[in-house]
Amino acid sequence: MTHRIAVVSTVEGDARGSGYLHKIKSLFPESDLRSVSFVQAYTTDAQLSDAEIKKVAEQLASPAIEKYFTSNIPTPDTYAFAIEIGYLPGVTDNVGHTVQEMIEDLTGRYFAGGTHVYSSYFLFLGGQISHEEAGKMSQELFNPLIERATIFGTDEDIPLVVPHVKLAGEQNTLEVDLNVADAELMRISKEGIANSDASTGLRAGGSRRGSLALSLSAMKTIHDHFAELGRKPTDVELESLAQTWSEHCKHTIFNDPLDEVKEGIYRRYIKGATERIRKGRKGKNGSKGDFCVSVFKDNSGAIAFDDTYLITHKVETHNSPSGLDPFGGAVTAIVGVNRDCLGFGLGARPIANVYGFCVADPTDSQPLFRDSQRKQQLLSARRILEGIVRGINAGGNQSGIPTPLGFVAVDPSYRGKPLVFGGTVGLIPRKSPSGSRGRPRKLYEKCANPGDYIVMIGGRVGADGIHGATFSSESLSAGSPATAVQIGDPITQKKFSDALIREARDRGLYSSITDDGAGGLSGSVGEMARESGGALVDLEKVPLKYPGLAPWQIWISESQERMTLAVPKRRWTALKKIFDRHDVEATRIGEFTKSGRCVVRYKKKEVMNITLAFLHDGRPVEQQRSKQRTVNRKQNSELGTWNSDLGAALLKILARPSVGSTAFISQQYDHEVQGSSITKPLQGKGRVNADAAVLQPLPHSQKGVVLAHGCAPWYSQIDTYTMAAASIDTAVRNAICAGASRDYLAILDNFCWSSSDTPERLHELKEAARACYDVAVAYGTPFISGKDSMFNDFKGFDSEGNRVHIAALPTLLISAIGVMLDIGKALTIDFKHAGDLVYVVGETNDELGASEYCTMLGEMAGAVPRVDVKKNARAYDAVGKAIERGLLASAIGVGRGGLGVALAKSAIAGQLGMRLNLIDLPGTAKTTDNILFSESQGRMLVSIRRDARKEFERIFKSVALTNIGEVVQAQSLAVEFPETRISLELPTITQAYRSFFREW
Q1: What does the pLDDT look like over 232-278, one tens digit per residue?
Q2: Shortest CA distance to 41 belongs to which of 77, 85, 89, 80?
Q3: Which pTM was predicted?
Q4: Which strands sit side by side in the sheet containing 888-893, from one edge to the other?
Q5: Domains of the chain: residue spans and CATH
Q6: What is d(CA 105, CA 979) in angstroms, rounded to the nearest whole number?
């Protein structure tokens, strides 16, 4: 019997209904929509009595403000149309799952036979609106890839909908014939293995499983390998090889030879930089020593925090799924990188999340379609941004992890596929406590042993997340599978995170752990099998969300909130009790071996038997060639007419989305949940977004962790070397301004490229990697972790049916992490006191190429900012010394928008004015627009107490330093230039800074 419980607010002016009314009216201002009523519904197909349903309903409704109904959906007295929105069958329903657990606790009976609770909600639209209008409104409220929306008129009955999963595909294992022509091999690679007709055993016409994303040489290598074995590969084997060999997992572009770089650009430029830096450091754990502990070999990188603890960091991207379902893609990004933290060593505790969104202008209304028939429409730029903001919110806030830092970059090239960065910082003791079983172990080391049980913990396996790794290795197009979209469940993950970190880890109950991320079990078990020397898995033991999944689907599904553990047999019972107590499913699905093979069975039949050597090292190495792109570089004199009203120009730049306030995001993200934040994401009275964060991981220690980032994708339109150099320089500069020291600063790289199989893009990639080596070595900042995403392209159609290819700008995010000895020295960006002196550190040069100012004017030419590592290093060390001596009141890195934006941000943050003279700034910038908007690197804007002037200036004897004026109480910004002056009121500047996302 099916039951439905409806809950409605009894409070006049229900907040949820009012929220939807405001949202819909803002999108359809000409509509006569006058009211929206909200009703939450819970439908279940479990065998529950009427008395039990009433008992459940009483728990779901708060009697002071809500009322429940069990026999019908309550409707307003008058309305025009009702819209029901719920999830499609098989999509993770976190609300429904939570209610199901509540019912099980309440009744003492577990749901059986594939029964569940399904959540949905109804919106009752009041006013004189047509069915067509209601349809357009519903299109703005749901994502057809994961949700259903049904419109009902006042004369229509509202039916009970139970979104059961019905899988009709082949559940047996197939053998795949690769003894075919090259064209058919590539069809299998591009479109997937052909499905089998269950009734005839023949391949169903045109029905295929989705891309394997393998090259022709890789397909031939697989063919030759199995030909030598005298058999055909099974679909499980072929799918597993595709996941393992994917660009997403093997990073083929970074690892394969490129031109003269025989060892690959990763080994030469990224890993090579770190190895050189570490060799040059001497001592242990001191400011001048090698503070790196674990780099490039685990789920996260780790540096020493003190003699007892390590700090870990990892930043991931989840771009392709976020292009289809931004909420699901973003929540999966953040909970996924949380698991990278939990999967470091034997488990680090997540202590902070960071984020970065590279998106299109949310006001861009250009419709784009994945298919030529224009039926598969991409979500709008606005809805993509809304979705990813909401996803990071859900993942971080519900997991109890603070989010103190993030950024937003806006460019039209991100319209086809957004870039969604999610990072997690972790804390882990070096050793297990002395009271744990056996001798204390190094918790940052792990190794699965032969004989250990293979244990899957967390969520169950479904069809969501299939082909996620291969999907992320290609462009977004009509063939991109909706099954690659997942929705994370932060609550389930929080429960097993607590079980792991608080109990199981320190008791020594498992010997290794990793995330079921890319490739699902095929990835996690396959990787851990290298530690022990082999693995044997029985797929029928894997818990499923619903029946009907084929063996290959169970093996490669990336359904969320799952990790794989290696558990010694003698520890299994104790481990199982802990997870049972935390209400986390833990299942033995096999055993690690020393056979040298990965063997998978399904109902006692062997469906995969591949040597680890071929699985991990059998991929053919491919020689890559690059070619330099010709760039038509104009000089500044050719740029046309510059904007003569610099005050108006500054206000316009402050109102641009890549520069202006993103407080609407920071205010949604909890940064205080663990009580560790020293500096805040919004700083000063004026609440300006910070470029760095300082945390106190241990309440009894004055040591802090500094986090910062640098991202300058716009410069790659002219020169990717300078883009990469500027990204590192910006991250280091922002960290220094918050209180970090170059002596104890590490960095992470996240490359997001597009069209990466073309020679021109490969040349740009090589140049960016070369810059990473040069600048990192010069600054002594080792890379400790990284990730790349190489095909951030959209290939589809516009509203007229014309083909469209949108390639994301070559983008490099650099994340910096450092340890500062005294959190009391942490610095913020806001001016503090009237009378403080204001200084610019560094030179301002004629470098407006690809700047925010040029972009605003529709120009891209000119000199791109160059990084002078020697000058900048001296400047950073001098500022660091001044902060250490307590001489600075504020500091901000001069970045996007130039000195004008840095001045405005510090003034807005402090709500104090300035009286400045920019006539004698050192450097080649002489025109007023160059002085104000040049984005020359290595510069910092600082303020100091007047009585600190002599000591402060003495530190900067070998560094360009200019006193440009003072902080004043007057609410105005007055600046003298060689040929003019500008004067702006602080309230006007503040309003401009907050204007773009004001309505969000």
Answers
A1: 999 999 999 999 998 878 889 999 999 999 999 999 999 999 999 99
A2: 85
A3: 0.92
A4: 888-893, 940-944, 837-841, 961-968, 913-917, 972-976, 981-985
A5: 3-153 (3.30.1280.10), 234-247+446-619 (3.90.650.10), 646-660+829-1000 (3.90.650.10)
A6: 75
